[in-house]
Amino acid sequence: MSEKYKFNNPEGIYFVTCTIVYWIDLFTRKEYNHIIIDTLKKYQEKRNLIIHAFCIMPSHLHLIISSKDSNESLGGIMRDFKKLSNKKILEEISNINESRKEWLLRAFQNAGKKLKRIKSNKMWQDGNRPIELDNNFLLQQKLDYIHNNPVESEIVEEAVDYKYSSAKEYAGIRKGLLEIELLC
Asked: What structural domains and CATH numbers belong to the chain?
């Protein structure tokens, strides 16, 4: 089994990406973005998750994370985060006036029905491709990548203008949506 994309160092800082199945642009509604934010906050409080940087893009989530507790597995935290956010977003799809409701639920049901371990709908792709940021060059590269992702996608002109990102914290403009432990 490959060791390339695993949380091998319990004290490490990792870049991870969580992607919606079929690269569906799910995070175009504030309700879903706020579920991601609230779920991450819960894991910061209850599971010792440290968030160094984040960016919620329409079809995926980028994070730079570590843990306050080396006994708390980042792999376990990410697994549980995806499971809980999957459940909450599926509930929200049914509760709000979602124009794509039937289509989204059908896509998530199709993604889940092929797997024995999934009992209903699967929103997230498997894995999160953790990359340990074990040197300053790699750390700065991933930090820049995360914050410039909305600029490269032409969602905003300046990284600090994107609401669902930690770019403003790094620019010293404001405290944002999540508690961020700055890296530099």
From this structure: 14-84+127-170 (3.30.70.1290)
